[in-house]
Amino acid sequence: GLNNMLEVCGANSLHTLSLSSCANISGEGLTVNLPNLRELRLLDIQKDGVKNILRICGRNLRKLDLSRSCIKGKDLSEFQDILSQLESLDISGCRSITDAGLKEILRICGNNLRNLKLGQTDITGEGLSGYQGTLPQLEELDITGCRNITDTGLKEILRICGNNLRNLKLGQTDIT
Length: 176
Prior knowledge:
Helix content is 23%, strand content 14%. By secondary structure, it is of the alpha/beta class. α3 links the parallel β3 and β4.
């Protein structure tokens, strides 16, 4: 299984792990640790699989791709130590992410994020009003295909972005 594969690959020295469309991977029973993992891609992985795999990651994780997973913001709360150094986060296509979930994600890993992909989620942005945190390092924000983003929601999103934002993708939205 996955545990044996990671052991054979040298889990201690592994820097990148990509598991895409592996619906059968639950991550259950993993005993190896991935202390030096810097990049993790878990596309189309179920919530429990994501959580089980995150549990074995070290604090060196810088890039996390959870595209099209069933994860919610509150599901990541227990991983603050692991996710606090993230520089790139892709949660595009995660239809379970709400504005409240996004606020939780930003609380956990917003300080160091340089690249944030929220495309094709159901966030409106309006639920970020009152959020006091900022994204001081953010350089790229992608909300392509977020049909529920409103003009007011976009203003809220831009309010929390720092002065380093260089690339903003708004395609396929209904923003006026």
